[in-house]
Structures are given as C-alpha cells and as structure tokens.
Write a structure and sequence with these properties.
The chain is α/β, with parallel strands linked by helices. It contains 13 helices and 13 strands. Strands 6-7-5-8-9-10 form a 6-stranded mixed beta sheet, with helices on both faces. The protein has a 4-stranded parallel beta sheet with strand order 2-1-3-4, with helices on both faces. A 3-stranded antiparallel beta sheet has the order 11-13-12. α10 links the parallel β8 and β9. 33% of the residues are buried.
Length: 441
Amino acid sequence: MSKKTPEITHPPTERAFLVGVNLRSESGLLSLDESMAELALLCETAGLEVVGETIQNLDSPHPDTFIGSGKVEEIKILAEENLANVIIFDNELLPRHQRELEQRFESVRVLDRTALILDIFAQHASTREGALQVELAQYEYRLPRLTRAWTHLARQAGGGGGRTGSVGGVGLRGPGETQLEIDRREIRHRIAHLKEEIEKVRAHRSNYRAQRKRAHIPIVAIVGYTNAGKSTLLNRLSKSNVYVANQLFATLDPTTRRVSLPGGHISLFTDTVGFIQKLPTQLIAAFRATLEEISEADLLIHLVDITHPNALAQFKSVQQTLIEINAGHIPVITALNKIDRLKNPPSLEEYTNAIPISALTGQGLPELLNAIEQELFETFVPVYVRLPYQQGQLISLFHEEGHVETVEHDRHGVVMRGQIPLRLLARFQPFLQPAKSSSPR
C-alpha cells in the first residue's frame, strides 16, 4: 500500500474590511479615494484580501469611537456580511479609540494604517539591523495600547488579594502585580535593549561613512516613494543584483554599490527604504540609523514613478519627508522613472531638475549619470564659513577640494571664504556664515 504524500497546508487568507475617514479639518497630498487605494495595496502586500470598504466624512474625530456609534454599527454589519476577520482604518487611531472599537467589534480585530505598515516591515526585515529597527517601532507603537483585555490579568498573589488569612505564604500576600504591569515593564526593558543595539548599528554605520568621507568618495542616495524602482535603478547602474519585487517596501535595508561615472570618477550609490504618505513616526525614529544614510549623502536622486496617477503627490510627499529627516538642504536630481511605459514624453514643469529615465531599459541613464557627475565634480558654490579648530578635517578638505579666496584666524577658529564643490556643501552647512552669494561656475 503506497503512502500518500502529505499535502502542504497554508493558513486561510485573512479578509480585511477598510475604513476611511475624511476629516474636514485636515488636508493631505492624496485624496481620500487615492489614500484608500494605497491602503488596499498595503493590504495586498501584507497578504490580506480586501472584501469591502466604507468612508465617513467628519468635522473632527468622535471622542470615543473616532467614527461615531452609528457608523460603528454599520461597519459591524458590513464586516459580518463580508466575513471579515480584521477591520483596518486608513487613519492612525489613538489608543483610546482602538480600545473602544475592539470592544464594539468584539471578535473582529481592529488595526490602523500604522499597524499595517509595521507588519509589512516586519515581514520584509531580512537582516538583523532591519529586524531590530522594526521590532523597536512595533513595541513603541504597542506600549500605549496595552489593555487589561489584551492580557490574562492573573494576579501573582493568587485569588485572595490582600484579605487577612488569604493563602499565599510569607511575602506573597497583598494585591500583587497585574500581568498588564509586568507586560509594560518587560516591554520597556526590551525597548531600552533594542535602542542600545541600534545605537551600536548607528555607530558602525557612522564609522563606515567617516571612512568613505576620508577617501573623498562622494555618496549618492537614491530616494523615492515606495515601489518607484530604486533597487532596479541601482542594479542597472552598478550591474549588481539587489532584490527587486513589484510590491511596496520590497527592500528595507540600505544597500551601497560602487558606480563609475562617465568622466572616470567613482561614487557610492545607496538604495534606501521607500517613503509613503503618513509614514509612521515610530518608523522614522526607529530607522534613524538607516535614514542617516540619506541625511549624510552628498547628492540625492529622487526617483519618481511618472506612470503613477498620483506621481506629483508622491513627489511632494517625499520632499516633505526629506525635510522631516533633516535632508532638505542636500542637492537633488529628480529622475522620472518608467518612461518606457508612456506613449508621450512626460511634462517636466512640476518637477525640480528633472530627467526622464527608464531604470528597466536604460533609457535616459547616460543623461542622468552626466548630470550626477556635473553636480558632484563640476559645480562649485560660494561659501563663507567659520570652522572651529577641532574641525581640522574640514579645513583640510576646503584647501584640497575647494578654491580658497581668504583665510582669517581668530580665537574661535578659521574663517574661510571661497568656493567648494556642491557635493561638499552639506558637510560645511553647520558652519556657514551670512555672505553675498554668486552664481556657481
């Protein structure tokens, strides 16, 4: 009698019902319909099946349920009809809103956009660094949301509490400590440990960046909305094989590759984590070590999926995020990607310093590389800086790479005026003094 080969079984796909709230007091770069479409894509990336959605227009959030009791009952009925096991809000819910909604919806789980993005990051974290950063973001998100309903609330002292004569033994009588309090304390300890480990990663990355700066090799960071094609572009330019997938947040960890520019110069290109509208603040904080790869770069390539219906809104969203992570001062070249899918050339009017390209076919990449080389090695900007004597490396760098016009010494440091390559401007930014500007040569 032949043995049957056991079949591999997979857990059933969870069914998600989406809720969007249009708060008239708030305005975003995407419309509510566009934001809901993006939420559906996030669900697909997380492995969820979207079975329905609803929207609600409000002047301000309801203090208890965020959406009001009537809407809660309507969603409860719709979720039951569609056999949904999870209800996902496009807005970030306050802990009190989430607790109340979980009680109202009973057996159906309640998530918000932030929790969904954190879950996707957890699925895609393939390195120790990525796993550490995602775990920290998840714990910091969950800590204020711990509730008594979330734990089993067993009392350590047993059922007798503090009553006289209760069983428990010497040293065990009294009210004890709830499981909730234990959970909170353990999570705080875990958060502290994760921050220590991430700080080590941050120091390690900082040392690598210092070595690259000492070698005077410029760093170019590729930034953009998630799924804009950053990894494909890095692969094409560096002839490497960074993981690529047609999904949101396919890569989380920055990857750096050497790229040869047309004039023979060498630069380091870094592929970074993709941005998204309403990027959770916990992620920005936890991924500080990774995002520093952007803020410490000499030049940014802002990659835009020009075929996306919300390309301009995504472009502006990334610009806002760059300012939030203190990278708004770094020179930027905008690369309008995926032009091979367009019938007509894209309009460049709305985009700063834009070059149409296709990372997949290579179209426009020679023009992009020429522009990068010009920005890094041929464009000089006038500067007037006061450098403390402790900044000897910057003083030497000004003499080696720039054109020094005047040098003065005082008790605070060295005052230097002249021109430096645009790629070095970010390093001198903290020491700039007011001066009359002239056009770059």
